Amino acid sequence: MAVGVLALQGSFNEHVAALRKIGVKGVEVRKPEQLESLSALIIPGGESTTMAKLAEYHNLFPALRDFVKMGKPVWGTCAGLIFLADKAVGVKSGGQELLGGLDCTVHRNFFGSQVYSFEADVLVPELAAKEGGPETFRGVFIRSPAILEAGPDVEILADLSVPSDKSTKSVAQNPEEKSETLEKVIIAVKQGNLLGTVFHPELTADTRWHSYFLKMVGDANMQNCSSSEGVPDGSQRPPDLPIYQ
């Protein structure tokens, strides 16, 4: 199995290394034609505006949108999640070009600037149920977005409690601190063959998210095989038999 990793900017090397660690070849993708032979794609974290400009320069957007529309598994981390969202707020002047597909609204820079990056233990019951290991995952949040709203078909895989006054800087300074006024923001979702995490699993030694995504790829391949088997071609349809009464 070969999994593509969009290699325009950001932490694509770390994703390739994580895939190699679990025995899967990661293919760096920089041109539209490189997507044709792939059955899945990872869009890494990075600077979303820069990635969008490079994708436009290399004429990648049409091919990437087709890849998503074909139902092939795609996983976006941090900036990659922003790409997959149907709507993004808090974007720079001029907007942010998106691929779409995930029925959610993402705040592009919810947790503040680079200096307010942080790590936090995140409850991941679905991940633990599928991949084993502890009930928590050490999330690395680097200028991370957050998912503000998710549609009815979106499965929420993880959330994080933040101060209700949106003072997210305090989360970065002490993410373990308890507060009386907290509200949850969504940080990991799944919709069909699309997976999104606002944090960076590729920057940890824990490869469970990559294994989880590969299971999605395997499930999608099995569905494609099942749908293509046993469907007779019109020219091979047996003749109608007479009906005797």
From TrEMBL:
It is an enzyme of class 3 (hydrolase). Its EC number is 3.5.1.2. One of its GO terms (molecular function) is glutaminase activity. InterPro entries: Class_I_gatase-like (IPR029062), PdxT/SNO (IPR002161), PdxT/SNO_CS (IPR021196). Gene3D superfamilies: 3.40.50.880. It comes from the Eukaryota. It holds the Pfam family SNO. GO terms for cellular component: cytosol; glutaminase complex. Keywords: Glutamine amidotransferase, Hydrolase, Lyase. Belongs to the glutaminase PdxT/SNO family. This is glutaminase.
